[in-house]
UniProtKB/TrEMBL annotation:
PROSITE patterns referenced in this protein's UniProt entry, alphabetically: CARRIER
Protein's name in the database: Acyl carrier protein
Native organism: Mariniflexile gromovii
Domain Carrier: 2-83
Matching InterPro entries: ACP-like_sf (IPR036736), PP-bd_ACP (IPR009081)
Length: 85
């Protein structure tokens, strides 16, 4: 699970072009939206694309994404359970 969390951090940094951040800058429990990383709705769309492209996960309900994208911990748990790639 720790390897998946590190991979998610790396993919988020690349997908959203967070050039001034490293994997070490993101704590597993940091909020991705609001506080923490301070991502916005455009970034959420980028994360949805990333999940589809990298893990074969298609999110159709935006409300579902809100819970999944709370933190790296919640994303990793969801990906581990639902990935098809």
């Amino acid at each position: 699970m720790e390897a998946l969390k590190q991979e998610l951090k790396k993919n988020i940094i690349e997908q959203i072009n967070l050039e001034d951040m490293t994997v070490e800058d993101i704590a597993n429990e940091d909020l991705l939206f609001g506080g923490g990383l301070g991502l916005d709705s455009i970034d959420a769309l980028e994360l949805i694309v990333m999940l589809d492209k990298n893990y074969g996960i298609r999110l159709t309900d935006p409300k579902e994404g809100r819970a999944i994208f709370e933190s790296i911990n919640t994303m990793a748990a969801y990906v581990a359970e639902h990935r098809t790639k």
